[in-house]
Structures are given as structure tokens and as C-alpha cells.
Design a protein that fits this description.
Helix content is 0%, strand content 41%. With 130 residues, the chain is an all-beta fold.
């Protein structure tokens, strides 16, 4: 048997694919809306700024974070903490100025700023007396 294909009893005699890489996790995000735009805060422990790939394409914001294995060639007595890469995709509305999207990473928290376009921002309408 190879690493990529094994026979398993889960679901019958069909070969089941095994991951040849670590697991992929969906990071949790908080989203804050302000007059200027949206701010997304996502927990991505173990990811450095150089290991994040954020792309905007076809109305979707895709976030990928690569995590290096914490320890290799180590045998654990018990293990609860899974290590793996992160992936999350968000649909982005037309009110966002996609040319001004920016992000920063600090202490394992990814912050993404999605500014609203000028025409989508709320504005106060002045009432004149005649």
C-alpha cells in the first residue's frame, strides 16, 4: 500500500484517500463593520506574515496560511492539538474598494481591512433653510 491510497473499511472496500500533508483548518473570524469599511480578525496561530497568501478574485477573498510542523520525529503519549494549514474564503460585495484591501499579522491574529468605496459610505445630508 502507498501513502496516498489505502484500503479501509470506512464506507466499504473502496480505496480511501489519505492526506499526504497535514490537515487544513478553517480559521474563525470576527467581522466588524464601521462607516469606513469592514475589518476581519482571524486567529491563525503558528502562521507568520511571510506564510500568508491573501488573494481577491471574482468577488472572493481567499486566505491561505501555511503552518510548519511543530515537532518532527517525536512520539506523543497523548495529543490534542492538531497542526495544519488554514484556508478560508469570503464573498466580497460590490461596496468594497478592492484596490485598497490591506492586511497585517500580529501575535497570531490576522487583521484584514476592507474599505468601503466612497459612494457606499454613509454621509450626512445637509438640510438648508430657505
Amino acid at each position: 500500500m502507498t501513502t496516498a491510497m489505502t484500503r479501509a473499511q470506512v464506507g466499504g472496500d473502496k480505496p480511501q484517500r489519505e492526506a499526504t500533508r497535514q490537515a487544513t483548518y478553517m480559521p474563525q473570524f470576527d467581522i466588524q463593520e464601521m462607516d469606513e469599511g469592514l475589518v476581519l480578525y482571524g486567529d491563525m496561530p503558528g502562521v507568520g506574515p511571510e506564510d500568508i497568501d491573501i488573494r481577491f478574485e471574482n468577488g472572493e477573498l481567499s486566505i491561505h496560511g501555511k503552518v510548519a510542523p511543530r515537532q518532527q520525529n517525536v512520539s506523543f503519549l497523548y495529543r490534542e492539538y492538531g497542526v495544519g494549514d488554514y484556508h478560508r474564503t469570503f464573498a466580497v460585495g460590490e461596496s468594497i474598494d478592492v484596490e485598497k484591501i490591506c492586511a497585517e499579522m500580529r501575535h497570531g491574529v490576522l487583521t484584514i481591512h476592507l474599505p468601503k468605496s466612497e459612494k457606499a459610505r454613509p454621509r450626512r445630508i445637509e438640510v438648508r433653510a430657505e
